[in-house]
Amino acid sequence: MDTASGTAGPAGQLQEASITGIPDYVHLAWHGDDGRRPGPRRSLQLRAIAAAGVQLADEGGLSRVSMRAVGARLGMTSMGLYRYVQAKDELLALMIDEAIGPPDFPAYGRARWRDRLSGWAYAARSRFETHPWVLSVSLPDPPALPYQIQWTERGLEALQPTRLAETEKLSALLLVNVYVRGQTQLATGLAASVRPGDNPGPQYARMLMRLTDAERFPRLTAAMTQRAAGPPSDFVDDAFRFGLATILDGIACHA
Q1: pLDDT tens-place string over residues 135-166
Q2: Each residue of 170-208: pLDDT tens digit?
Q3: Considering only CA atoms, which of 100, 148, 153, 149 is closest in space to residue 125?
Q4: Are the CB atoms for 111 and 83 separated by under 8 Å?
Q5: Which residues, in sequence order, are bridge partners of residue 17?
Q6: Which of these, 8, 33, 65, 70, could form a disulfide with 42 (CB 3.0-4.6 Å)?
Q7: DSSP secondary structure letters along the chain
Q8: How far apart (Å, rounded) are the C-alpha atoms in residues 213 and 209?
Q9: How far is 177 from 164, CA to CA, in rounded Å?
Q10: The CA-based dihedral angle spanning residues 245, 246, 250, 255, taken in that order and rounded to the nearest 10 degrees
Q11: Nearest-5° angle of CA 124, CA 129, CA 134?
């Protein structure tokens, strides 16, 4: 997305971006209303708008979220809301930042980089599990909102003990972030298909064994048979732990 170009808003005005190419809602999230835009100062904080959207999404999913619904929860019209955000995509980006919140998990101390990055990954996973709708939203711009940048900084801090170049640390952190998001999204969908409190692993294994046959799918059958017959365990946690350890092993080859 070319953030320096203007797009027509519902009020017929162009979205303004600074000469540095920063979208207006991003600038507002970082600095508040600094008076650079003409007209009356905006008294409502963007965080209040984002929090209202998060409440709606937590209550009934993203289908509950609209400019009108968020405005109504704040006691204002949807047109009034457009003074703060120019489109629903911007609202959703702000909601994601608010839902993720600050990376306030414990300090790393003298922990090894693997333990640091693992702690970062589990903390991120917890935020996604609390607000699973976040995983189905595509951001309108590259992550640049305050909490997103704080999480990036904490992730890079986790990798400081390594010998990776700074750009390689960014690439490693992106790899872990993509894994956490993808694995959590799959686990959330799997958990939604079973009764609350049930272990989704064995149930999924038994379902696949009923749908497939050993002659056509011998390797899948072997894996599902082992899963169904194995000792009780948390399939989601086991899968997450194994995948994360494998990724960290790969990073270790370069660190």
Answers
A1: 999 876 788 999 999 999 999 999 999 999 99
A2: 999 999 999 999 999 988 877 666 666 566 666 777 777
A3: 100
A4: no
A5: 23
A6: 33
A7: --TTS--B-TTS-BPPB-TT--BHHHHHHHH---S-SSSSPP-S-HHHHHHHHHHHHHHH-GGG--HHHHHHHTTS-HHHHTTT-SSHHHHHHHHHHHHH----SPP-TT--HHHHHHHHHHHHHHHHHHSGGGGG---SSSS-SHHHHHHHHHHHHHTTTS---HHHHHHHHHHHHHHHHHHHHHHHHHHHTS-TTS-HHHHHHHHHHHHS-TTT-HHHHHHHHHHHHSPP--HHHHHHHHHHHHHHHHHHTT-
A8: 7
A9: 17
A10: 10
A11: 80
What lies within 8 Å, CB to CB, of 29 at 6+ separation is 46, 47, 94, 97, 145, 146
Joined tokens for residue 239: 């899968």
pTM here is 0.81
